[in-house]
């Protein structure tokens, strides 16, 4: 649930996508201390061809969630629904 919230809170996600159908893999690269605030930025590491041919495509992506001083917090593989 936290990983989806991190994706959703990012402004780029809200501008370009309408949702994530499923998160397939999550890899935490760093532990977050209790009480610490996470203000994520993210970047798409891998973008594959859309699965559907419709205008609203389902696109497999791999994202890097960055934490504070551009440290890698986690990577997420998901199926992204484009606007």
Notes on the protein architecture:
By secondary structure, the chain is α+β, with helices and mostly antiparallel strands. The chain has a single domain (2-82), classed as Thiol Ester Dehydrase, Chain A, CATH 3.10.129. It has two helices and four strands. The protein has a four-stranded antiparallel beta sheet. The two termini are 22 Å apart. The mean pLDDT is 67.
Number of contiguous helices: 2
CATH class: Alpha Beta
Give the N-terminus to C-terminus distance in angstroms. 22 Å
Helix fraction? Answer: 10-25%
Main β-sheet description: 4 strands, antiparallel
Mean pLDDT rating: 67
Output the CATH topology.
Thiol Ester Dehydrase, Chain A
* Total number of distinct structural domains: 1
Approximately what portion of the residues adopt beta-strand conformation? over 45%
**Rg computed from alpha carbons, rounded to a whole number of angstroms:** 13 Å
Write the H/E string, N to C. Answer: HHEEEE
Which structural category fits the helices and strands? alpha+beta
| Outline type | elongated
The unreliable regions are: none
Second rung of CATH, namely the architecture: Roll
Strand order, sheet with most strands: 1-4-3-2
Number of strands: 4
């Amino acid at each position: 649930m936290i990983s989806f919230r991190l994706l959703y809170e990012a402004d780029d996600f809200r501008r370009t996508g309408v949702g994530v159908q499923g998160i397939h893999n999550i890899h935490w690269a760093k532990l977050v201390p209790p009480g610490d605030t996470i203000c994520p930025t993210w970047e798409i590491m891998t973008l594959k061809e859309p699965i559907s041919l419709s205008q609203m495509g389902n696109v497999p992506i791999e994202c890097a969630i960055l934490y504070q001083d551009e440290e890698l917090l986690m990577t997420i593989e998901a199926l992204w629904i484009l606007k």
